[in-house]
Structures are given as structure tokens and as C-alpha cells.
Design brief:
Layout lengths: L39 H19 L2 H10 L3 E3 L4 H7 L8 H23 L10 H26 L2 E2 L16 E2 L1 H18 L11 H14 L3 H12 L19 E5 L10 H4 L6 E3 L1 H7 L12 E3 L5 E3 L9 E5 H14 L5 H14 L10 H15 L6 H7 L3 H5 L13 H6 L12
Antiparallel strand pairs: 1-5, 2-3, 4-8, 6-7
Helix pairs in contact: 1-4, 1-5, 4-5, 5-6, 6-7, 7-8, 7-11, 8-11, 11-12, 11-13, 12-13
Length: about 425
């Protein structure tokens, strides 16, 4: 009898569209383990499912909501107890959304693991060597993206490199350190680089997407020269440019990786900002910065007051708008920070990159001069540039600035607790320090 997969990560049922119509292939819901990936069409379907999971699960409205609130510049309009737990940095392991995030990350990883495990054995002549390499490269990229975020959120977590077919497959695996999780993400990106084409596609992984994510990861690892080199590899391609005046980046040279949505698969992040029952609002402090001509400039469109004086976040114009995984502006600011922090700082180069982003936003050049001033100016620029994107919490934590910026002196709180339900299900899984049992 053929085994039927019940793990939710294998419900390859959603559609994703791309420039190459890659995602307009009909998928299936429940298939036997032997048949999940057996030809060109099913291989493409499996990769499509991994992208869909990355976009609609990993980067969903709930994840953005939590990280944006933790970053301090966005407030919840619901004032629920869980919101208070977030903004007071008093998360508990029994809060439901933690289980959701944990499951979402691992569902996406499991989808990628199925591609990595099965695609090499497919013998369909329609699945050419180049296409097989591309699909494998995309799976390695998606797994790297997911493990990187998993490590950023939860710190020390179990690593699974093979498909999970039954629940027992995931029990008893010890946690790896955050450093080991980041090392895996880096290794996966290096593999992806050798497999992916050097094309420009905004909503699929290519070599340039790998360089971009690796630049971000190397910044977290304090590998500043490598981060600069990876940013150079993207920005040397004229398909990635800053576009003046500032506008939302989807489908433009300002976009490096975006998550696509459609009328059959809506961007749930839209509901955070734009509906009558919207959940989030820019705080007055970030609204003021965005609307200061010397700070926000043209980025004032990200926070607009309505007739009632409420601040409306302007990141998603419609419920099918793309979400931004990596933008060209981030590569400039990554390179600026890397140039300032590398062993032999390049302050002129750092300022040049910082001012390129500011010029695009129609604000004056920075007045920073010293190394310390330039590093702080880059931090402040990231705050404004990514005001409605989930960066600031991670930025402040990774740079050791949480005590000064958030008045958060307990390093145990820089990562979230392992969900209580996961520890109940697997007694070998230990809780992160500072969160009890």
C-alpha cells in the first residue's frame, strides 16, 4: 500500500504566478509519497508550493504584525493581550501565534526538502538538466530563507534536512545553535548559487537573489567584506537600480525579491493597513519622520493621515499587491554598513551608498562624518526606508543596540520562546533560556 502524506507542508494546492507563467500549472492536494515528485510537471508544482508557502505562510500578515510591533514604530489598533506581550517584550511560550510561526517555517522547509530529496531522481526527459538544477537551486534558496528567519526568531532550533513524512520523523532531534542554523542557511545559499541561472526575475530565485540574501546573512554574521562583495554582485547589474522619485518597489528595478499574490491568493498583509478593520497604524514618531522633508522626503507616502487624523500605512495599495522580500535599497544600505564596519573602513564608500538612498528619496545628503556618526545614520536610514517592513526589530537586536533603543537589557528576550506545544509533543526539545519550561 502506498503511504499517504498527512504532513501539512505537502498540501501543494495553491497557485503562484511569475513572469514565465511558471505558476499557472494545476496542482494537486493529496498524493502518495512515491508520486509526489515524479516528472517535470510535479517537480514544478512542488517548487511552486514551496514559494507559495514562503509568501503566504512565512511572510504572512501575522509574522509582519509581530515583528513590526516589536520594532517599536508601529502600534496595534486591537490592544489585545498578545499585542501587549509583544510591545512589553514579555512573550510567553503558550501564545498561539508562536506555534503558527514555528509550523509555518517548518512547513516551508519540508516542502523544500521534498524537492531537494526527490528531484535529482526524476528521469522525465522534459525535465532537462538545466531546469532540474534551477528547481533544486530554488529549493535550496527557499530553505535558506526559511532557516535564516527561523534562527532570527527562535535562536536555537532543530534542523531537518530530509522530508518529514510522519510526525515521528521530527521527534528527538536536538536543537542546533543559532550559529549552526545560520551556517546551514549560508551553505544552502552557496549551493543555490551554483545551480541557479543569472537571470533577473523578481518573484523567483536567481543567482542575484542568492547574492542579495547572502549579503543580508553575512551582515548578521559580521562578515562585512563578504557582505560588501555580495552587494556588489547585485548592484553591478543595471537591472537593479534606485528609481527616483520614490515609489513602491513591486515590478521595478528597486525590487530584488518580491512575493506575488493574485485574486485567488490574496496578500493578507493588506488587511493590516487598509481595511476598515485594519490592525496596524504607524506611530506618531515614525509618521513625523516620514513626513519630515529632510528625513522621509518622498517616503511620506508610507504614512498618510486620513480625514479623521489617523495614520494609514501605505505599503500595500491593493490586496493583490506584492510584498517585498529584498529591495535594491537594502543592498545599498547593507553595503554602506559593511563598508563602515569592515576591518579597514571605507567611510567615503559608506556615505556614498547612504546618500544614494537619501537622494532617491529626495532628502539632503547626510551630515555624518565620523565612523560612529555614519553607522548611526545608516541605522536611522534603515528605520525610515523600511518603516512598514519587518526589519527594525532584527536590526536593533543584531547590532547590540536593544538596551539603548528598546530599553531591553535581557538578552534572553532577543529571541522568542519555543512554543509550549512543541515541547509537550517532544520532551527532548528544551525551552530557550529565560522562558521557563
Amino acid at each position: 500500500m502506498k503511504k499517504i502524506l498527512i504532513y501539512p507542508a505537502l498540501l501543494l494546492s495553491m497557485l503562484l504566478f511569475s513572469c514565465e507563467n511558471f505558476l499557472e500549472v494545476e496542482s494537486f492536494d493529496r498524493v502518495s509519497d512515491e508520486n509526489t515528485i515524479f516528472d517535470k510537471s510535479s517537480a514544478e508544482t512542488a517548487v511552486r508550493g514551496a514559494y507559495r508557502s514562503l509568501a503566504s505562510l512565512n511572510y504572512s500578515s501575522g509574522f509582519q504584525n509581530t515583528i513590526l510591533q516589536a520594532g517599536g514604530d508601529v502600534r496595534s489598533l486591537n490592544n489585545a493581550q498578545t499585542d501587549l506581550n509583544i510591545i512589553n517584550y514579555s512573550l510567553r511560550s503558550d501564545i498561539g501565534f508562536l506555534s503558527t510561526y514555528w509550523a509555518n517555517f517548518y512547513n516551508t522547509i519540508n516542502r523544500a526538502n521534498h524537492v531537494i530529496d526527490k528531484v535529482p531522481a526524476v528521469t522525465d526527459v522534459k525535465l532537462t538538466a538545466d531546469l532540474k538544477n534551477q528547481l533544486l537551486g530554488e529549493a535550496y534558496f527557499i530553505r535558506a530563507y526559511s532557516y535564516f528567519d527561523l534562527g532570527r526568531v527562535f535562536g536555537n532550533v532543530p534542523i531537518y534536512l530530509t522530508p518529514t513524512k510522519v510526525v515521528a520523523d521530527k521527534l528527538g532531534v536536538p536543537k542546533s545553535s543559532q550559529a549552526e542554523v545560520y551556517a546551514l542557511a549560508l551553505a544552502d545559499l552557496n549551493k543555490a548559487e551554483t545551480l541557479l541561472p543569472a537571470t533577473v526575475v523578481w518573484n523567483r530565485a536567481t543567482k542575484f537573489t542568492v547574492y542579495a540574501l547572502r549579503a543580508r546573512l553575512n551582515l548578521y554574521l559580521n562578515n562585512y567584506e563578504q557582505a560588501e562583495n555580495d552587494a556588489n554582485s547585485v548592484l553591478a547589474n543595471t537591472s537593479y537600480q534606485l528609481v527616483k522619485p520614490f515609489s513602491l518597489a513591486a515590478g521595478t528595478p528597486e525590487s530584488v525579491l518580491e512575493f506575488s499574490y493574485s485574486v485567488t491568493d490574496l496578500n493578507t498583509g493588506y488587511g493590516l493597513w487598509n481595511t476598515s478593520n485594519r490592525q496596524l497604524e504607524p506611530k506618531a514618531v515614525i509618521h513625523t519622520l516620514l513626513n519630515d522633508p529632510t528625513v522621509g522626503g518622498d517616503r511620506k507616502i508610507l504614512s498618510v493621515p486620513n480625514a479623521s487624523g489617523q495614520f494609514i500605512g501605505g505599503i500595500y495599495p491593493t490586496n493583490t499587491s506584492a510584498a517585498y522580500g529584498i529591495r535594491t535599497a537594502e543592498l545599498y544600505l547593507i553595503r554602506a554598513e559593511a563598508r563602515a564596519k569592515k576591518p579597514n573602513p571605507d567611510l567615503a564608500g559608506a556615505l556614498s551608498d547612504l546618500n544614494a538612498v537619501r537622494t532617491r528619496a529626495n532628502v539632503p545628503n547626510s551630515t555624518a562624518v565620523t565612523l560612529e556618526e555614519i553607522i548611526l545614520a545608516i541605522e536611522n536610514e534603515r528605520r525610515v526606508e523600511f518603516a512598514l517592513e519587518p526589519h527594525r526589530w532584527f536590526d536593533i537586536v543584531r547590532t547590540g543596540r536593544a538596551p539603548a533603543v528598546f530599553n531591553l537589557n535581557d538578552p534572553n528576550k532577543y529571541i522568542f520562546p519555543i512554543p509550549a506545544g512543541e515541547i509537550l509533543a517532544d520532551p527532548t526539545l528544551t525551552q530557550n533560556p529565560g522562558y521557563g519550561n
